[in-house]
Write a structure and sequence with these properties.
Helix content is about 40%, strand content about 25%. The chain is an alpha+beta fold. It folds into two domains: about 40 residues; about 55 residues, IHF-like DNA-binding proteins (HU Protein, Chain A, Irregular). The chain has a three-stranded antiparallel sheet. Strands 3-4 form a two-stranded antiparallel sheet. Helix 1 packs across helix 2. The longest helix has 20 residues. The protein is elongated and about 55 Å long. The termini are close together.
């Protein structure tokens, strides 16, 4: 376990290279290719599902009205698409029980 609560790509590559017995370059390539593939599939309208972990998909957010906090003027935020990750029930249970793998 690391001391920092945030793991960036560089730290992830270090941990993955140790865990998989890969070079750091191989780990970075794996990470980049994996996330590029997930992004490509989402952009093509697919949900990417990893059983026991969760799913990635594009979520359509409706347009909404609000009041600007500083100017107090009404604003409209237009409809937009946003990436969404949903953890699986198994992952959520493990997080809530703080079960380490």
């Amino acid at each position: 376990m690391t001391t920092s609560k945030t793991i960036n790509k560089k730290k992830c590559a270090q941990l993955l290279s140790h865990y998989m017995d890969w070079t750091q370059k191989e780990s970075i390539e794996f990470i980049e290719k994996s996330f590029n593939w997930i992004k490509k599939e989402m952009l093509n309208g697919h949900q990417v599902l990893f059983p026991g972990f969760g799913s990635f998909k594009i979520n359509k957010r409706k347009a909404r009205r609000l009041i600007h906090p500083t100017t107090k003027k009404p604003m409209i935020i237009s409809e937009r698409m946003a990436p969404q990750f949903t953890g699986s029930p198994k992952l959520i249970k493990q997080i809530n029980q703080k079960v380490l793998i």
